[in-house]
Every structure is written in C-alpha cells, then in structure tokens.
Amino acid sequence: MARKFISGNDAVAEGVRLARPHVISAYPITPQTIVVERLSDFCEDGSLKAIYMHVESEHSALAAAMGVSSVGARAFTATSSQGLLYMAENLPYASGARMPIVMMNANRALATPWNIYGDQMDSMFLLNAGWIQVYVEDAQEALDMMIQSYKIAEDPRVMTPFMVNLDGFVLTHTYEVVDVPEQELVDAYLPPLKLAENMMSLEAPKSLCITAGNNFNMEFKIKQNEEMNASTAIIAEVDASFAEVFGRKYHGLLEAIACDDAEVILITTGSVAGTSRMIIEEYRNKGHKVGLIKLRYLRPFPTEALAKVLKDAKAVGVVDKNISFGYEGTIFTNVNSAILQSGLTPKVHNFICGLGGRDVTKENIREMFDALLSSAAGDSCEKIHYMNVRCAL
Amino acid sequence: MIEVRWHGRGGQGSFTVARLLGLAASVYGGKYAQAFPSFGPERRGAPVLGFTRIDDVKIGDRSELDGCDYVVVLDETLWGNDVLSGLKDDSIVIINTKDETKYKSETSHCIIAIDATQLALDYLGIPITNTAMLGALVGASKIVDPAHCIDAIRASMAPKIAQKNVDLFNHVYGEVNSCE
After folding, report:
1. What share of residues in chain B are helix, strand, coil (percent, to 5)?
2. Of the candidates A129, A288, A313, B14, which lies 20 to 30 Å from B108 by C-alpha distance?
3. Among the CATH numbers 3.40.50.920, 4.10.1110.10, 1.20.1260.10, 3.40.220.10, which is that of A254-386?
4. Which residue of A175, A271, A366 is the best one to mutate when testing the B interface, meaning the one whose CB has the most B CBs within 10 A?
5. ipTM of the assembly?
C-alpha cells in the first residue's frame, strides 16, 4: 500500500488503473480533465494495459464504451456538466442494454449562465437514466468506489452502468492523503470480467439494435427497475466484502452519524457531508440532539434505510446543490416521497446551496441546524431556504 | 488545525508550494492535510491563491478558509486587502520583499520579510520563490519538520532541480526566525 498526497481526480485515475479496464474512451472537460490526462499517461507509460480512445465528443465516448461492453470487456469513461448532457442520449441505451460501464462525473453547474464551478445540477438531470448513482465525500472514497463500482455493476444480479460523482473542484482539485492499495489485492478482489452469455464477438457478431415494442417494452422496463431496486442488497454486500479486504467501509447506501437519539437530522450528499461532520460534533458538545445522514446513493434510492434512521426525528433537512425549476431541490422531492411512503411525519425543510460553486460555509451548516432545531421546537419555519445568498429574495 | 494561505501569480508556483507543505505534513510527517488552489481557470500572471490545512485528525472541512494562521505572499505587488483579509489576531504574514517598512506600517500583524527573489536568482537562476517562501514559513512557524519539506521537494522535482531547491530552502530556513 502506498500513501500518496493526491487530488480527487488523481485518486479516480489511480482507482481506474487498479480496476484494469480494457478501454478508456473519454473527452476532456473541466473539472474532470486531470482524470483523462492521467489515464492517457498510464496507457502511454504501460502502467495500465488499456486502449485509450480519443473520441470527438462525449456522445461518442459513451457510444464507444457501449461497443466495448457489448463484447464483454471492461469500459471506463469520465465527464462533467455539459459533457454529461451531450452524452445523455446514450445513457438509457447503455442501461437498457444492461452494460456494466463505469463513469466518473465531476459535478458541475449547467449553462446558462455558463459556469465551470461545482454544483449537482448535471447528475440530477440524469437521475432517470437507469444508471446507479453514488456521491463520494473525499478522494479516498473516490478511489475506493472505482473498485467497488465495477464489482457492483458487473454482478450478474445487477448488470447496470454506474456513475461515480465527485463535487467539481471541491473534491476533484483538492489534494489529500490517499492510501493506494496494492494491485495484487485489487486483482484478487476484482477478477477480470468474464464474458457473460449473449456477448458479441468476432465469431458471433450481433445487432445492437435491441428493440421491444408495445408487446414487451413494459415488462422489459419493470424488470430493469426491479433489478435496480434489488441492487441495494448487492451494494451493501460489496461494501462489506471491500471492508474485509481493504479495511475501509462506507456503510452501503447511506451513513448515519449521531442519529440514534437525534431530534433533528440533516441529509447531505458529497463534500458537504465532510463540513457537516465538524458541525455535528460542535452541536453535540453543546448538548443539541442533532444527527447527520450522508446519502451516498440516489439510485437505487434507499427508502427503507432512510425510514429506519429518520423514524424518531422531529425535523428533517435536505441539502440540495440543485433546483428542479418550478418545484424544489431534487433530493428533497425524493426524500419526501420516502418519508410519506414510510408513514413518518417529521417537519421537512429544504436547504438549497452551493449553486455554481458558491461556498457552503460552516456558518451555513450551523444556520441549517438552527432552523431545524427551531422547527422541531414548534416554531413555524420556511420550507425552502436559500443559503449564502447576497441578493434580496 | 493550522491553515495557510499562499498569494502568488499564475506561474510562480504558489499552488505547488501549498501542495509541498501538505505532502511534507501528511505523507512524511504522519499528519492529515488538504491543499487546494483558488478554483477556476489557470492564467499565467493572474493573482492566484493556494491553501493548505494541517491537522492531527482527518480533515472533513470542505469550505473555503475563513481565518488563516499564516499568509505567505510570493509577489509583493499583490499586497492589499486580499492579503490582509481573513486573518486572526495572531496571524503571521510572510512576504517576499527587499523592504518591509511599508508593510509594517500598514498592519499590526507580525510581518516576516525575506528577499526571496534575490535568493532564488542566486540559487536557481530564475525568480521562482516558492521553495524559498516554504523555508521562510517553516522557519517562522515550525509547523512541519524541515526534513519532511526536503523529502517533499525531492519527491516532487527532478534530482538536479530538487537539490538546488533544497539548498535554497535550507538557506532561508536557517535565516528566518519566529516573531518576537
């Protein structure tokens, strides 16, 4: 094991190298660029025996990855923001064809106005694409999820493409200490992809134009949905087996921090979870019964796991680095549905922050907990809060 | 937690040195560290910031620095509100200059001055002052072991260039003392 001081993007590239994909097809875009630069270097210096395909667009990047996956080889791509949206047409093609492609997405704002900084508008846009979506908190988790993602995606019970999300700049461009595991350990944990049945080869060429008309399409989609839902068990299983081998665990679909006796709980994704951990400690030391959920997976959505943690909470806050225009934050909508389905009745609040790279400060997190505590105490409180904004609203 | 903010211009190595300090503290010093640049497009000559956080425990904080312990200015033409903002009462400002009188009259914070440009020209033949300023910071603060900085420099540069930078680092480290 090597201990390195590297960025989130470097950690992704190291993780991909350890996972040994056969082909990398990607187009550079800020703030993902370093990932594809490093992988291109690794292919050139021979430390990763893969083909690096220079493609002319993100749409082609995923189309190429689908070709790779269709012959049973391991494919990797990476993108961000407008690139992800340009790729969008191919995302449901890949998931419907049940191709275990892994993609890294550097979460970044969407135009207009044009903005290269981090928020989560891009991946929320593709929540319905049939891809598993995980959000990581630091560079170590980014590296580890590159290994876990192939293990989960390629499981015959799952066979679903996998998107690993890193907050743009805040995670992609921050250097920190990362343990890079030994290749032998990863090889034993993640053996080479075995050709499944029905794969295309030079000897058995097939048409990729998979069609299902009104006689089969609905059953096809229901099966896809049921197996995506069932992947929650495999996600937990892989996290546990990963911990046994590598000594690090991420608690599967979500991590609950100080939630056991919590009266108010804040739900976060990605890098905001890290900052919130500090404030949880601070507020607990002051005697406030506050808890934190680091929501790791948005698809499959952890309805049952959430209900279990939220069951005694009086007020629940959801942090969204996105807006679904004309409604509210997307994660808030998803959490509310889970709360309603579970028969819970906490007060619910949405904290929208961090759009277009706006800093999410420690003071912002304190403001969120203060609002939740006052709501739990019976005060009436706005449903949607916009954090760290200058303009009068 | 110790927080350091580096002020420089694109091309002067201000983010590289933020990273060298983090590498010295973490991989070689056994602590936890974060290093990150001011996010956004990179342009030669434009003002850029580098940040380093060092702690004994894993650092969860992902927000921007709001109160730093040390500010290191690689280019004195950047002196102004940006340099003096977000300081604590006991923050120390380390600046690359031939003459610190002007700066001392404009702030009550402790100012440590070093003519890093001249030293960089002497040792490297080019006015890249980042490893000199690392020597000044570590000399003034002792926040990391100088031997770990030397390890970090050697791990990050080609051997010939690394040796010159190590010599420069050692010179400045030996010359700079903490604030009285």
Report:
1. 45, 25, 35
2. B14
3. 3.40.50.920
4. A175
5. 0.97
Bond before A112 cis per omega within 30 degrees: yes
Q: From the CA of A178, how many Å to the nearest CA of chain B?
A: 9
Q: Could you say which residues from 51 to 90 on chain B have a Cβ atom under 8 Å away from some Cβ of chain A?
A: 59-64, 66
| Average pLDDT per block of 10 residues along chain A, 393 residues long | 96 98 98 98 98 97 96 96 98 97 98 97 98 98 98 96 98 98 98 79 87 96 98 98 98 98 98 98 98 98 98 98 98 98 97 97 97 96 92 65
pLDDT band at B42 (very low <50, low <70, confident <90, very high): confident
- Bridge partners, residue B49, by sequence: B7
Q: Do A274 and B62 touch (CB under 8 A)?
A: yes
Residues in chain A closer than 8 A to B32 (CB atoms):
176-177
Identify the residue among A4, A119, A120, A177 best suited for mutation to test binding to B, counting B beta carbons within 10 A and taking the highest. Answer: A177
Q: How many CB atoms within 10 Å of residue B174?
A: 11
Domain ranges of chain A: 2-246, 254-386
CATH of A2-246, one of 3.40.50.970, 2.30.290.10, 3.30.565.10, 3.50.30.10: 3.40.50.970
Within this chain, domains A2-246 and A254-386 share the same CATH topology? yes
Any idea where the domains of chain B sit in the sequence?
A: 2-175
Partners of A177 on chain B (C-beta within 8 Å) are 26-27, 32-33
**Biggest distance spanned by C-alpha atoms of chain A:** 70
Assigned token pair, B60: 């969860």
- Element of type H or E holding A186: helix A183-189
* CATH code matching the domain that covers B2-175, chosen among 1.20.1090.10, 3.40.50.10860, 3.30.1490.20, 3.40.920.10: 3.40.920.10
Rounded Cα gap, residues A186 and A188, in angstroms = 5
* Pair of tokens at residue A148: 């876990």
The count of residues in chain A is 393
pLDDT at B82: 94
Q: Beta A264-268 vs A315-320: how paired, if at all? A: parallel
Q: How far apart are CA B4 and CA B18, in angstroms?
A: 8
